[in-house]
Specification:
Blueprint: H1 11-25, H2 31-38, H3 45-50, H4 58-68, H5 72-86, H6 90-103, E1 110-112, H7 124-131, H8 141-147, H9 154-166, E2 170-172, E3 178-180, E4 185-187, H10 194-213, H11 230-252, H12 274-280
Parallel strand pairs: 1-4
Antiparallel strand pairs: 2-3
Helix pairs in contact: 2-4, 4-5, 5-6, 6-11, 7-9, 8-9
Length: 281
Amino acid sequence: MLRSVSEFIDYRRFLEHYYREQKRTSRQFSFRWFAKQAGIASPSFLKFVIDGKRNLTSPMIEKFCQAMRLDAREAKFFSHLVGFNQAKTARDKQEHYAVLRSLGSPVQEEIIRGRNFEYFERWHTPIVREVACLRRFGEDWESLGRAVAPPISPAEARTAVETLLGLGLLEKRGDGSYRQTKPGLAADESLTSMPVRAFHGIMLEHAKRALHEFGKHERNQSSLIMGLSASAYSALTEEIGAFKDRVKRLVHNDADCTRVYQFSLDLFPVSADLAQEAGQA
């Protein structure tokens, strides 16, 4: 099924998806056929763009939108997605990303503030919020505790559920099942909270454990060591923000959840700022 362009954060991946779906559903579709529909001389131009060998200019964006028969909203999203992916500066990325967010219907999130930071005080409480909704646990605290990895005690499972009910983040149904009252939660980034910092620290320890306890078919862990300028760092943080929004939309539309995962992105310095040191010399 052809997915909406608003589900993508990389326009080349959208074009690749579009090509495969059109090829699967239409016998006449080909790179040459697309070029003809778009009024492009090169029959392989779409392939070059998908492969990252060519970029799209404004006139080409318009031709692509017409050939793909995107409506006005989709065409605007595609245009800014191309701009976001091809932007050379962090400011340009921010400008395009602001439009993408306004068009992409981001998942609504409840911001956790004040007393609700109790949500982060025990690392397993956010996990119990997800696990408790996977099947009908009722008050079987032992089973609920065993379903968390690493397992927690029945008392800890019960306390977590009581905390979530008290904060209004879970509700119990008549059949003994639990339901989340908010689709998404996020910490208030304007505040510095010890519980949130401690939570992130514990989850990093769990990431180390997962490296040894789970096979590669159950986990995806990797890292990059790279040199960055200040402007490249700003641009990369915009890319991470866009990717996180894409992940949220994907998860929000997943109706067949069977397991809870922890997903972390970390970008931090592992060297001194040599430019700053040179300025102080």
